[in-house]
Amino acid sequence: MFSELREQDDSLMTTQTAPGAVNGEHEEQRVIRVLLADDHALVREGTRRLLEAESDVAVVAEAASGEEAVEAARRLNPDIAIMDIAMPGMGGIEATRQIKAHCPKTAVLVLSAYDDEQYLIALLEAGAAGFLLKNVHGQELVNAIRSVARGESVLQPSLTEKMMRRLTNRSHPAQRSSDLLSEREFDVLRLAARGLPNKEIARRLGLSIRTVHSHLANIFQKMQVGSRTEAVLQALRRGMISLQDTYDTQ
């Protein structure tokens, strides 16, 4: 059974109107459904209370092990799984890999006390969307959850570059972007690969932020991923973009 498993009803799938407007538009903001996976009950309780203070975030389940996290993700399909690395039984890396295999649209955000580069690269290869240390302030975690939900990256630039170089050093047959993405979707993906926030992507392409969100959602759907980080790494792996495409020349 799940440790202190808490589930919410389907009302969490509803949307609410965000107060911010872009080009006169009001965006519909969906409540972000979160799974918490950590073997420390106190950490889960504190994180849950922090997140439940936010109107656009809802904790749908908690898990004390990797096995529980995978089972909860398979049943509930949360938007984001907040994952610890070191847990009894199945660890966070394997749990991330299995969650991504069964629930590709669930984005995994790692919250850990470990910052060893080998762990981080292994987590990225397993499909993690971002990484934060447990010494972050509460608002930083909330902002990271919202960023991942918007399709933005939550990762140290230096680590991202190392991971990209690692992928481009492998031999993979190139896939034409037009085989999978529209021209405009590829433009958005290429700018996302440079680490630009959605607002800047919108400015450079002359689009509204809502349209950028829509393009990212289509990219994630077509590539069967749950985050920008995964989409960019997969595009590199497939040869759709090159390492040069990740450098911002403006």
Automatic annotation (TrEMBL):
Any one Gene Ontology MF annotation carried by this entry is:
DNA binding
Q: Which UniProt keywords apply?
A: DNA-binding, Phosphoprotein
State the superkingdom. Bacteria
One Pfam family matching this protein: Response_reg
Give the HTH luxR-type domain ranges.
Answer: 174-239
Q: Which intervals of the chain are annotated as region Disordered?
A: 1-24
Keyword ATP-binding carried by entry: no
Residues bearing the modification 4-aspartylphosphate: D84
Question: What InterPro entries does this protein map onto?
Answer: CheY-like_superfamily, NreC/VraR/RcsB-like_REC, Sig_transdc_resp-reg_C-effctor, Sig_transdc_resp-reg_receiver, Tscrpt_reg_LuxR_C, WalR-like
Task: Give the Response regulatory domain ranges.
Answer: 33-149
Q: Which Gene3D superfamilies match?
A: 3.40.50.2300
Give one GO biological process term.
Answer: regulation of DNA-templated transcription
Name used for this protein in its record: DNA-binding response regulator
Q: What is the lineage of its organism?
A: Bacteria, Bacillati, Chloroflexota, Ktedonobacteria, Thermogemmatisporales
